[in-house]
Amino acid sequence: MNMPVLAETLVANNGSLIGVLRLNAEKTLNALSLPMVDLLSAQLAAWAYDERIAMVLLQGAGEKAFCAGGDLHNLYSAMMGHRGSRQAGDVLGNGYANEFFAREYTLDYRIHTYPKPILCWGHGIVMGGGIGLMAGASHRVATEKTRLAMPETGIGLFPDVGGSWFLSRMPGGLGRFLALTGASINAADARYAGLADRVLPHAELPQVLATLLRQPWSDDCAGNHVLLGAVLRVAEEGSAACAPGPLRQHRDLIDRLCGQESLETVLAAFAAVQSDDPWLAKALAAVQRAAPGSLALTWRLLERAPRLSLADVFRMEYGAALHCCAQGDFMEGVRALLIDKDMRPRWRPAGSTRHFLDNPWRPREHPLAGLDN
Hints:
By secondary structure, the protein is of the alpha/beta class. 47% of the residues lie in helices and 11% in strands. The protein has helices at 34-48, 72-83, 95-112, 129-135, 163-168, 174-181, 187-193, 205-213, 221-237, 246-249, 251-258, 263-272, 278-289, 292-304, 310-327, 330-339, and strands at 5-11, 17-23, 53-60, 65-67, 118-122, 125-127, 139-142, 147-149, 198-199. A hairpin with a 5-residue loop joins strand 1 (5-11) and strand 2 (17-23).
């Protein structure tokens, strides 16, 4: 049986070690399963206290994807079982969903706060849970084949894995636009929006690794961050510049569209746009097919997130995700997209998610209460 995550260490010239973690589920585009979450968490925890480890490289197996999202099939099965049980409707009654989101979000938070440098090589498809892994890394590389998206409103969920945090902190209307439309962006736009730090050809990875192995690593985490940053900066300076992507090209329009005071006026502004640009037309059309409740929930999360700490954002998203599993459109969205593949979801009305930010736990009893301890 193949391990879903492969871990190895590379020995630098001065004897320090570079830890390498490779998502190893190529057939599913490295979709993030619970065993993968647990293996990543355990290895990162061990390396955090290993003085020999100077930095970590996080990458995906194969040429198609770093990570195409979460393991939706197992979540669907769990939702089916839960809704047919005596605990149907109880947000705390789906044991698998409770465990999956708690452990996934804990992993994402630890990556955001990891003391040692983490280089995420975001080659190929990076969606949903994949962005959750990449967003928190201290150093993030996109390549010529990188395609990032948070399309969760199209399956009855919302841009989670910390999406409320980083999307709400993007300049202008970029975060709202990406959250509501689920638009796919390339490497240049990933850097423009703050989801990548450097853009490098994928073929440069072996050379980047060779250079990293020659660095004078030490037990000084701050110094190691500087060393990694310098290597990536020099590598990017030697690469051809990227042309601006469509997100940047349409920035003025996006800011006008998403600068409205309410979701309803933003959606009306979207609907009024007539464009021959394929990327923009596809993004705006996706909103028309999205779950109305998910759009409303996403809007409220983005409004609330700027006032919260990162840990509080993950706690807020955790509760919202469990509501989506127990009472929302998430199961129906997965059914239409992946199970029956009829692409005809039967969505609930927009007001159906109004209570999804209600917190069913007391502060000290929240499953993610210990994130910022």
